[in-house]
Amino acid sequence: MASAYASLPTRYSPEHVWALIGGFDSLPDWLPFIPESISSEGGRVRSLKDPDGNRIVERLIAFDDKQRSYSYTILSSPFPVNSYLATLRVKADGEGSLVEWFGEFTPLGVSDAEAEALFKGIYEGGLQALAKTLG
Predict the structure, then answer these.
(1) In the 8-state DSSP scheme, what is residue 12?
(2) Please, which pLDDT band fits residue 51 given cuts at 50, 70 and 90?
């Protein structure tokens, strides 16, 4: 099993950051490389579209508003992995917060290092976009 991790310290309160990113269907609000998200199954499934028109379908596995985290799995995507499980969470960090995005997955047809680099890049790019959105 391979894994990837990225984090972003912010000067904003965890409540402020979670209000922006805590909705499972909120990726287009802060992530420019996901311009579309369509929810279904009562908000437990999201169908994302990237700028190239690729579809990524994900299912919410766990949501904890009090702990400011959610975990999800990929149902279908162009990514060379299966058994994907990721978590996005916001923790208090001094007077600000720490946003963490991490996942575990089984690479398909690529090495662990290649799959890890792919998702580390996605997570880091997403958190850089979040930093810009926060200002």
Answers:
(1) S
(2) confident
**50: confidence class by pLDDT, cuts 50, 70, 90:** confident
Question: DSSP letters of 61-72?
Answer: EEEETTTTEEEE
* pLDDT recorded at residue 88: 98
**Contact call for residues 28 and 36 (beta carbons, < 8 A):** yes
CATH numbers and ranges of domains, the chain: 2-134 (3.30.530.20)
Banded pLDDT at 9 (limits 50, 70, 90): very high
Q: In whole angstroms, give the CA distance from residue 56 to residue 88.
A: 17
Phi and psi angles of residue 14, each rounded to the nearest 5 degrees, phi first: -60, -35
- C-alpha span between 82 and 1 (Å, rounded): 10
pLDDT for res 41 = 96
User: From the centroid of its chain, how far is CA 86?
Assistant: 7
What spatial distance separates the first Cα and last Cα of the chain, rounded to whole Å?
36
- Are 37 and 48 spatial neighbours (Cβ–Cβ below 8 Å)? yes
